[in-house]
Design goal:
With 486 residues, the protein is of the alpha+beta class. The protein folds into two domains: 2-242, Rhopdopsin 7-helix transmembrane proteins, CATH 1.20.1070; 332-480, Heat Shock Protein 90 (2-Layer Sandwich), CATH 3.30.565. Helix content is 69%, strand content 9%. It has 13 helices and seven strands. The strands form two sheets. It has a five-stranded mixed beta sheet, covered by helices on one side. It is rod-shaped, with a radius of gyration of 44 Å. It binds adenosine-5'-diphosphate (ADP). Adenosine-5'-diphosphate binds next to helix 11 and helix 13.
Length: 486
């Protein structure tokens, strides 16, 4: 009766440890599967799985054993599983420092077979003491190796989890050596389960508990590494975000610089254009003052002068409004815009330059062309293209200089083109047109087309170059009616 209760209790110990190891295995396995920062060590996972299989087989064996001098074959299986688990755990510790050589892998695989044969032989011919001595010496050797490898790893990379693993492995070594000492000094021969000294059972169980603790420590070590890797990738993500933000700020500054450059190039003609209505107004006011002083002002004349003053004033206000709308900061959001109006604003700014360079403008725009986009940015695209066309036409000897702006609905959006009948673009320059800093002009920055491309792309559209009919350059861009991002 006592014998059976004792066996049951012992078996229960093994099963409980098996359940704990199983819980550890599944817990960590799912943890690993849910992330891909750190891959699990197959040696540790394998060792844990084989160890728990060994515990189950061993526990089952205890339930059925009668004479421990002649245990059944399943004890050979259980011990071979323990040996394999110990090999894999030691290899895991080795792999912390360097890759495992192939010869090690093959050597240890063969050693499992050799172990199986030796233990099977010992099971048949040797005593319980000899088998215990054999197992504890073998296990101790692995523990010493394991501790040595963990120490080495800790020197390079301090880790609290590795310290726990080293303590647990040292404890395993202590209890294994303790078991060896007990069987060596035992003067009596153990035959029945109840004859095994209590202290030996205690040491065996404690050694197994320590073994489970070392598996837990390795699990902790991996969790620690995953946490570190996660923190690192979070940091990297933050750095990428900061870089992207910096890029956006830089592009924002480039947009501003480009606006200043493109309108700056026109500033002389804009100033000239502004001066005209202002000068005319000034003359009209002086005329009005004189007529008023002389008392010669009749209602007809009065209306005529005031109408001219108002028209001149509106002309000047239009130019200012167009310039303001180019530099306006408020239009950062995407709004519903009428393309014809947008083109008109650009033309208001360039008209003086267009006139002074003797350029004819042909407009072929669908008056109802509407899109949802960032008005300021699209305006800048058109201004850049128109400016480039004016510059190209200004530098060519063509008598009949023409700038054509077309816009229409296409299948899934709108298409706008700006064409000129200048010299066009040489074939070799076409591939790099939209690249940053690619310019053929002495005063050019090579920013305009790159920015156009950037703006159009971020509206979910595309821009390209075509040769215009009869030579010259034609830039076409297409935008979705509802831009994705603006
Ligand atoms: P930038 O005008 O500062 O040189 P852009 O990016 O606007 O920079 O233009 C890049 C180059 O593309 C220009 O230097 C010019 O050689 C060429 N290019 C652009 N538009 C035209 C055009 N309409 N006709 C001829 N060449 C053009």
């Amino acid at each position: 009766m006592y014998d059976r209760a004792m066996k049951l209790l012992l078996a229960l110990y093994f099963f409980i440890l098996a359940i704990i190891q199983m819980g550890l295995f599944f817990g960590i396995y799912h943890y690993y599967r849910s992330q891909n920062v750190v891959k699990p060590s197959p040696y540790w996972m394998g060792s844990l799985l084989i160890s728990l299989a060994g515990l189950i087989v061993f526990g089952g064996g205890i339930l059925t054993i009668d004479d421990i001098a002649t245990p059944q074959f399943n004890f050979t299986i259980a011990n071979a599983l323990f040996y394999t688990a110990a090999v894999l755990q030691a290899l895991f510790c080795f792999s912390l420092n360097r890759p495992i050589p192939r010869v090690f892998k093959i050597g240890f695989a063969i050693s499992i077979l050799v172990f199986l044969i030796i233990f099977e032989w010992l099971r048949n011919v040797a005593t319980f003491e000899i088998r215990t001595a054999f197992m504890t010496i073998l296990a101790s050797t692995f523990y010493v190796w394991q501790i040595f490898e963990i120490r080495k790893k800790r020197m390079q990379e301090p880790s609290s989890q590795l310290s726990y693993l080293q303590y647990a492995s040292s404890a395993e070594l202590f209890f294994a050596l303790g078991r060896l000492a007990i069987v060596v000094v035992s003067s009596f021969t153990i035959r029945q389960v109840e004859q095994i000294p209590q202290i030996l059972i205690l040491f065996t169980i404690t050694q197994l508990v320590m073994n489970t603790l070392s598996y837990i420590a390795i699990g902790g070590y991996w969790a620690e590494r995953i946490a570190l890797a996660n923190a690192k990738s979070r940091l990297e993500n933050q750095e990428i975000k900061a870089l992207l933000l910096e890029r956006e700020t830089l592009i924002g500054s480039l947009l501003k610089a480009n606006k200043t450059a493109s309108t700056g190039a026109l500033s002389a003609s804009i100033a000239h254009e502004l001066n005209q209505p202002l000068g005319a107004s000034s003359l009209n006011i002086q005329f009005l003052q004189k007529k008023l002083a002389d008392g010669e002002l009749n209602p007809g004349m009065q209306k005529e002068i005031l109408d001219t003053l108002l028209a001149d004033n509106q002309r000047a206000a239009n130019i200012i409004r167009s310039l303001r709308s180019i530099f306006s900061e408020s239009e950062v959001k995407s709004t519903k815009i009428n393309v014809a109006n947008l083109v008109q604003i650009v033309l208001d700014i360039v008209t003086p330059e267009v006139h002074s360079k003797n350029i004819q403008i042909a407009l072929r725009l669908d008056p109802n062309l509407q899109i949802h986009a960032n008005a300021g940015e699209i305006q800048q695209v058109i201004l850049n293209l128109v400016n480039n066309a004016i510059q190209a036409l200004a530098s060519c000897a063509q008598a009949d200089k023409r700038l054509t702006i077309e816009g229409a609905y296409v299948n899934d959006g709108i298409q706008i083109s700006v064409a000129d009948n200048g010299y066009g673009i040489p074939a070799e320059a076409r591939a790099h047109l939209f690249e940053l800093l690619s310019s053929t002009k002495t005063s050019g920055m090579g920013l305009g087309l790159w920015l156009c491309n950037h703006i159009v792309l971020r509206h979910g559209g595309s821009i390209w170059f075509e040769e215009a009919v009869g030579g010259g350059a034609k830039f076409i861009f297409q935008l979705p009616v509802e831009s994705i991002e603006a």
